[in-house]
Amino acid sequence: MKHTPTSHHELGPLLAFGAHPDDIEFGCGGVIAKETLSGRAAHFVVCSRGESASHGTQAQRLAEAKNAARILGAAIEFADLGGDAHFEVRAVHALKLAGIIRRIRPGVVLVHSLEENQHPDHPRLGQLVRDACRLARYGGVKELRRAPPHAIGQLFYYALTPEAEPVNVAPVLIDVSAPEILAAWTAAMKAHASQAASRNYVDLQLTRARYCGLRAGIGHAIALFPGDPLVLDSLAQAGRGARRF
Amino acid sequence: MKHTPTSHHELGPLLAFGAHPDDIEFGCGGVIAKETLSGRAAHFVVCSRGESASHGTQAQRLAEAKNAARILGAAIEFADLGGDAHFEVRAVHALKLAGIIRRIRPGVVLVHSLEENQHPDHPRLGQLVRDACRLARYGGVKELRRAPPHAIGQLFYYALTPEAEPVNVAPVLIDVSAPEILAAWTAAMKAHASQAASRNYVDLQLTRARYCGLRAGIGHAIALFPGDPLVLDSLAQAGRGARRF
Amino acid sequence: MKHTPTSHHELGPLLAFGAHPDDIEFGCGGVIAKETLSGRAAHFVVCSRGESASHGTQAQRLAEAKNAARILGAAIEFADLGGDAHFEVRAVHALKLAGIIRRIRPGVVLVHSLEENQHPDHPRLGQLVRDACRLARYGGVKELRRAPPHAIGQLFYYALTPEAEPVNVAPVLIDVSAPEILAAWTAAMKAHASQAASRNYVDLQLTRARYCGLRAGIGHAIALFPGDPLVLDSLAQAGRGARRF
Amino acid sequence: MKHTPTSHHELGPLLAFGAHPDDIEFGCGGVIAKETLSGRAAHFVVCSRGESASHGTQAQRLAEAKNAARILGAAIEFADLGGDAHFEVRAVHALKLAGIIRRIRPGVVLVHSLEENQHPDHPRLGQLVRDACRLARYGGVKELRRAPPHAIGQLFYYALTPEAEPVNVAPVLIDVSAPEILAAWTAAMKAHASQAASRNYVDLQLTRARYCGLRAGIGHAIALFPGDPLVLDSLAQAGRGARRF
Amino acid sequence: MKHTPTSHHELGPLLAFGAHPDDIEFGCGGVIAKETLSGRAAHFVVCSRGESASHGTQAQRLAEAKNAARILGAAIEFADLGGDAHFEVRAVHALKLAGIIRRIRPGVVLVHSLEENQHPDHPRLGQLVRDACRLARYGGVKELRRAPPHAIGQLFYYALTPEAEPVNVAPVLIDVSAPEILAAWTAAMKAHASQAASRNYVDLQLTRARYCGLRAGIGHAIALFPGDPLVLDSLAQAGRGARRF
Amino acid sequence: MKHTPTSHHELGPLLAFGAHPDDIEFGCGGVIAKETLSGRAAHFVVCSRGESASHGTQAQRLAEAKNAARILGAAIEFADLGGDAHFEVRAVHALKLAGIIRRIRPGVVLVHSLEENQHPDHPRLGQLVRDACRLARYGGVKELRRAPPHAIGQLFYYALTPEAEPVNVAPVLIDVSAPEILAAWTAAMKAHASQAASRNYVDLQLTRARYCGLRAGIGHAIALFPGDPLVLDSLAQAGRGARRF
Predict the structure, then answer these.
(1) Chains linked to F by 3 or more Cβ pairs within 8 Å
(2) Which positions in chain F touch C221 (Cβ < 8 Å)?
(3) Cα–Cα distance between D219 and D212 in angstroms, integer?
(4) Which end of chain D is more exposed for a tag (fewer CB within 10 A), N or C?
(5) E56–F2: do the CB atoms touch at under 8 Å?
(6) Across the interface, which of B162, B210, B243 has its CB nearest the CB of F215?
C-alpha cells in the first residue's frame, strides 16, 4: 500500500504461465491463438517439466511444449519452482516469477485459477503469479532491482476443468470460433502426444468450449476470469451478454 | 427455451428503468450523461410518481423528473405498476414493461439490482425488468403482439446504496471523471429539489463514485453489474483491471 | 430513498412476529424471556391460527398461544395474512404489518429469517416484515396515515431450524443460560400442548441452544441474525467472541 | 413445524414437473429413461401448453409432449398455472400442485431449479413445487382434504442451462451412458419437432451430459441437485466421487 | 491432467487421518464404528502426539489413542508432520501421506475439513491429505515409486466443530443411531481420559449428532462433506432427504 | 481441540498488528484513537520496515511509525517475519506472534483481513495472527513456555481497501465522527510523509469512512469484521442497525 506502481497500460505482450508442459494449451490455447493471429506477441512460462506424470520422458515433454508454443505463435521459457508435484507458496518462487514479469513487461497475464482442482500445483501457481504481479510493482524489492517496476494491465485466470472455475466471479467469454483458431488450438493440444493416454482430455476441452459457445449463441468460446473489475470507457465496450437460451 | 429470439445487437438506444422519480439519476446518472454526451439516445421509464415519500407533491416530483431527464439528454415516460411502495412481482407488470422494451428496442437496459436494500420497490422492479427482457423475446406472447420480438444486448444492474451491490458478480466500472459528465450528473441529482431533506444523498453518491474511482486509479467511476457474462472479441476489449492500490 | 425517517432509537418495546401460534416461542422464546425479565415490554403478533396443521383446533391453539405469551410476559395480538399455509408476498400484507409497527413503535423487531425452510409461510413472513419496517418510515404512504412514521432500531431474524439459519451473516449469540430464563422458555414451548405429536421439537430447540452455548463457552444461547450491520460506540460494546473450542 | 408428516419412504413413483411441454425431456430426460427402463413408474406434470413460444401450435405441442412421454415410458398430465409466460408464486398454484402430489404419492419429485435463468416460469415452478411438497404433508389444509397427507422421499432440482445450476449445492451425477438410455433420451428431445428452430438445444444438452460424464470418468451423466442433505446408511451407499481428471 | 490414474473403486479399506490423537474419534468416530461393525477394515493415521496440548503426557496420549482405535476396531499408526501446533502445507508432508495412501490403498479417505476452525493444524492436514490423494495417482512421482499409483473412491471431510463445517457443500448424513454404534463411539471418545478437562467436548459431539439426527427424523447422525460430487447409478441409491421438520 | 484455554475476558489492552509501518494507521487508526482517547491501552506490532516500498528509507519509515503511534497514544514494537514482501505462513512466525500475545495479554486483537488484496503480506499476516491467537491458548507449546497461556476476548479484522473486506461476515461499524478522533487519525496517517506519493491514500480512507458513516446515519465510521460471532448479554447491547437510507 505504499508502493508506487509504474503505470503502463498500453497493449503489451501476453504472458501465460502453466504449471506443466501442456497446461497453457489445454487451459486457454484458443485465446492464445486468437491473440497471436491478430498480431499480439505471446510468451509462455512453463514451471515444471511434467516429470511426475505417468507418461512421457522429460525430453519428450519439452519437445512437445516447444512444438505446441510454436504452433500457437508464442515464445516459451521454462522456470523451476521445485519440480512437478512439489509446488509450494514460497516468497522465493513469487519473486522469481515477478522477475520474469519485469523482464517481459506484459499487458495481460494468464494463469491457473486459485480454485482447488485436479492438481495441487495449479492453484499454487495461480497464487504465486497473483503475488508476483503485485511484487513486480514495488520499487524497493531487492531481488528485483535488475529491471524497473512494472504494473500489468489485467490478470486473467483460466480453468483446466470445471472444478477450477471460480463460482463468484463472472467470466468473460472469448470467441474462438474461427476455423483457423480452432485448428491451431486443437493442433497445439495434440502436440502433447506423450499424454495420449488422456486423449479424451482434448475432447473435454473442445466440448467445454462448444458448451460455452452455445450459451453465448456462437460457435466455441473460452471463459476467462478477471482478477480485478474491468474499467470501461463506455457501455459499448462491454459488448453484449452471453444469453442465447 | 423454446422461443426464437430476434437477434439484434447493434448499438440500440439505452433504456433505463427507475422505481421512483429520482432513482435513475442517483443510481447511474453519470453513466447516462456519458452515453448521451457521446451521442447515444437514452430513454427513461419511471414506474411511480414517488407519492409515498415524505416530501414533495406528485406534480413537483414529475416536474423534477422531467427536468433531470432533460439535463441528462434523455427522453422520459411514466409507467404505473400499482403505485409507490406497492410494487409486486406480477406477470401483468412484467408484460407491461416487456411491451415498452419492444417499442424502444434498446441495446442496453439499466435497472435496480435484485438485492434487498432500502426500498422494497427497488429489487421488485429489478426482477420485473429482468423478466420483461426475457418475455420481450418470445414470439407467441399474446399481450405483446403489437410489436415484433426484441432481444436486448445486455442488462446492467445499478445499485443506489452499497447494500444493493451484488456480492458475487464482479462489476464493470465506468469512468465518469470528465468534468462535463460530473457536472451534468450532479445537476440532475440536484434537480430533485423536493427531496432536499435527504440532500446528503447527493453527497453519498459522489462519495461512492470517488471511492470507486480511487480504487481504479481514476477520478470518479460508477459500478454496474452485468446480468450475463460479457462476450468479448479479444482481451484488448476487456481494457485493464481496477487495481490502483 | 426519498423518504424521511422519524429517527427514534431509544429502547422501545420488543415486537416479535410469528407465522403460526407457536413460532415465536420455539424460535426465540428464550430471548423474549430474558428481555421481559429485565423489564422490557414485549408484544407478539401471530399471523395465523395454525389451522392447516395436522393437530389442534383453532380454539385450542389460540388459547395455547395466549398462555405462552403470558408465561413469557408478552402482550399478544393476531393478524390475518390469508390463513395458515396461504401466505403470499403482497403489498397489502406488508402495509398491514407496517401499520402495527407504527402503532407499537418498537425498538427491536424479531421475525423468521428469509431462508427457505420447513414451512413456506416462514420466509414469506420474514420478507413481509422486512418490507413493513421500511414502509413504516415513509411519510406519504396513504394507508398508514393513521399513525406517524416510525424507524425501528434493528431487525433481528430468528431461525426455527438449522436450514433457516442464514449462511452469510454472522449471528449474535444471546446468553439464555439463567435457570429462570430456561424455565420460562421451556414452559412457553410446552404450553403448545396440542402440538405434542412433535414434542421432540422442544428437544430440538433446547439441543440447539445447548449446542450454541457450548460453542460460546456458556450454558445455553440463541443465535439471532441482524438485518443490518451493528453500529457500536466502542470495541468494549462488542463483548467477546464465541470461541470456546 | 406443527404438522405431522405421513412418513412414507418406500420407492414410490417418480413425479416430474415442467413449465413447458419440452422442459422435462431437455432437463432430465436421460434420468427418466434410466428409471423407467429399470421398472420404476414415472409421471409427468406439464404446467403450460407452451403457447407463448415463437413456434408450434398448442395442438402440435401437446401431441409432441405426449409422444415424448410415451418414448420415456411416463404417464403425462397437464396443469394450468395461468399460462406460459404468466407464472406467479401464488398459494392457489402451490395448493393445486400439492393436490397432485397427494394423488400420485411419489417417492422422488423432480422440478426446475430455483436459480433465475432463461425463462421466468422455470424458477417460479421450482418454488411452487418446493412449497407444494411441504403443503402436501400438513394434515389440516382444507383444500387438500380429498387425499391423505404425503411426505415425499427427496426433491431433486434439474437445470436446463448452466445458469440454472445452483452454485452452492454439490450435485449428484446420474450415469446415463447406456446406449438404450441415450437413445430414448435423444428421441424424446427430438419428439419436440416444432421447436426445431432451436435444434442445437438438443446439441447443448448432449454436450452438457458428455461434459459432465467426462468429469466423472464415464460416458454421459446428468447432474441433479438434491433439495435436502442425503441420509445414507453407509459410506458404501455414497458410491464414488466424480474425479476423472 | 497428464497423469494416468489406476482405476480401483471396489470397496477398499477406510483410511482416516487426524491431526491429534483424539481428532478422528471426536470428529467421526460414530461413522468408523458403523463401518467396522459392518465388517469393513479401518486404518487410522494420527499425525502428531498432541504434545502441545495443555494436558496429558505423550505416553498417555499414545496409549489413549491406541485404546480408542481398538474400541472402534481400527488399526492405527502415527506420522510426523513437524509436531503438534507446527503443521505447514509442505510438499514433503503431502508426499509422505501419499505414500501411506499407496500402501493402504483405501476406497474412502476421511480427514478434517478445510475450513479454519479451532486449531490451525486441522485445515492444514485437510489440505495435505487432499493433495496426497491427488499425488498418489501420478505415476511419475519419484518419492512414491515404492508402491503403484492408487486412485481413491471418495474423500470425505469431517468437522470437529460447527465452524469447521463447509457452508457451500451439502453434507451427507450417516445414521449412527444404533445403540452399539453410539456405545462404541462414546467409549472411544472417553478413552481420551487425559483430556478430561474438556469433558463437555464429548457432550458437544453427542449433542451435535442428536441435533443432526433430529433434522433427519432419526436418532443420531454424523455429517460428512464429500470432496467431489457423488456419482450414482440411480435415484434409489440417493436414499431420502433429511427433512423431518 | 484438547487444549485448556486460560479464560480471561476482562478489558485487556488493544493489540494491533500491521504488515508494514503504516498499515495499522490507514486500516483502523480511527478506532485506535477512539479507544486510547477513552483510556484503553493500545500496543502496535509492526512486522516489517517497509523496505520493499518504492519510497522511504528504513530509518525514515521507523521514525514515521513511532511518531504515528505516539499521535494515537499507542506503544509500538517491531517484529521480523522475513522482511517486507517476503511473508510466508510458517509455524515459526505464528509462534513468534503468539509469544507477543502471551506477553501483552490483550482483550482485543486487530489485524489485516484474510482476503487477498493489494499486498500479499496482508492476508498472510492475517492468517499468522489468527493462528497465533489459537496457539497462545495451548498449555503445552514448548516455544511459548516463557509466559502462561492467554485467551483473547475477540479478534477483529480490518481492511485497507474494499477488496480486503470479507463478503460473508457482517461488519460492526465503529463511530469515529468526533472531531478529536478524526484529527488524531488524520494526523497519524499524514505522519507517514515518505509515502506522500500515494497521498490520496489518505483521501481514500477518509472517503471510505465518510461513506460508511453515511450508510449508518452518522459522520464517519470504520468497519471491522469480527473473527467469531458476538456473544451478547441482551439485545440492548447490540445497539442499532446501520440503516440511514
Answers:
(1) A, B, C, E
(2) 231
(3) 9
(4) N
(5) yes
(6) B162
How many Å apart are CA F75 and CA F85, to the nearest integer? 24
What integer best gives the mean pLDDT of chain A? 90
Give D102 or F2, the one with higher predicted confidence: D102
Q: Helix H segments across B38-90?
A: 58-72
C-alpha B35 chain-centroid distance? 13
Q: What is the pLDDT of residue B144?
A: 97
In terms of Cβ atoms closer than 10 Å to its own Cβ (0-12, 13-18, 19+), residue A101 is buried
C-alpha dihedral over B128, B132, B134, B137, to 10 degrees? 170
- Beta-carbon count within 10 A of A112 CB: 29
CB B162 within 8 A of CB B152: no
Q: How many CA atoms lie within 13 A of E153 on its CB side?
A: 21
How many Cβ contacts (< 8 angstroms) between chains B and D?
68
Contacts D56 to B, Cβ<8 Å: 2
| Cα–Cα nearest to F18, from F109, F135, F154 | F109
Edge-to-edge order in the sheet of strand E108-112: E75-78, E42-46, E14-18, E108-112, E154-158, E221-226, E172-175, D230-232, E240-241
Mean pLDDT per segment of 10 residues, for chain C of length 245 residues? 39 94 97 96 97 91 97 98 97 98 97 92 98 96 96 94 84 95 97 76 86 86 93 84 67
In A, which residues are within 8 Å of F198 by CB distance?
A: 1-2, 4
Return the biggest CA–CA distance within chain F: 53
Q: Kindly identify which residue of chain D lies nearest to residue B148, measuring between CA atoms.
A: D54
CB proximity list for C222: less than 8 A, separation 6 or greater: C28, C30, C31, C158, C173, C174, C176, C209, C212
The residue written with cell numbers 422494497 in the block is B120
The whole-model pTM stands at 0.93
The predicted structure's pLDDT at residue D203: 80
Burial label for A224, CB within 10 Å (0-12, 13-18, 19+), is buried
- Tell me how close the Cα of A139 comes to any Cα of chain D, in angstroms: 41
- Mean pLDDT taken over chain E: 90
For E57, what's the count of Cα atoms within 13 Å in the CB-facing half-sphere?
Answer: 3
Which grid cell is F126? 492475517
Q: Helix (H, G, I), strand (E, B), or coil: what is residue C97? A: helix
For residue C207, the chain E residues in CB contact (below 8 A) are 207, 210-211, 214
- Cβ(D224)–Cβ(E237) under 8 Å? no
**Residue D140 with chain C: CB contacts under 8 Å:** 51-55, 84
For residue D108, how many C-alpha atoms fall within 13 Å in the half-sphere facing its CB? 23
Q: Which residue is listed with cell 431437455?
A: D26
DSSP structure string for chain E: ---------S---EEEEESSTTHHHHHHHHHHHHHHHTT--EEEEE----TTSSS--HHHHHHHHHHHHHHHT-EEEE--SS-TT-----HHHHHHHHHHHHHH--SEEEEE-SS--S-THHHHHHHHHHHHHHHTT-TT-GGGTTS-----SEEEEE-SSGGGS-SSSPPEEEE--SHHHHHHHHHHHHT-GGGGGGTHHHHHHHHHHHHHHHHHTSS-EEEEEESSPEEES-TGGG-EE----
Whether the per-residue pLDDT at B30 is higher than 60: the answer is yes
Average confidence (pLDDT) over D218-236: 91
Give partners of A (≥3 CB pairs < 8 A).
B, D, E, F
pLDDT over 90, % of chain F: 72
Convert the pLDDT of each residue in E176-221 to its tens digit. Answer: 999 999 999 999 999 999 986 555 788 888 888 988 888 888 899 9
**Res C241: pLDDT:** 81
CB under 8 Å to E174, separation ≥6 — which residues?
A: D232, D233, D234, D235, E30, E31, E34, E221, E222, E223, E224
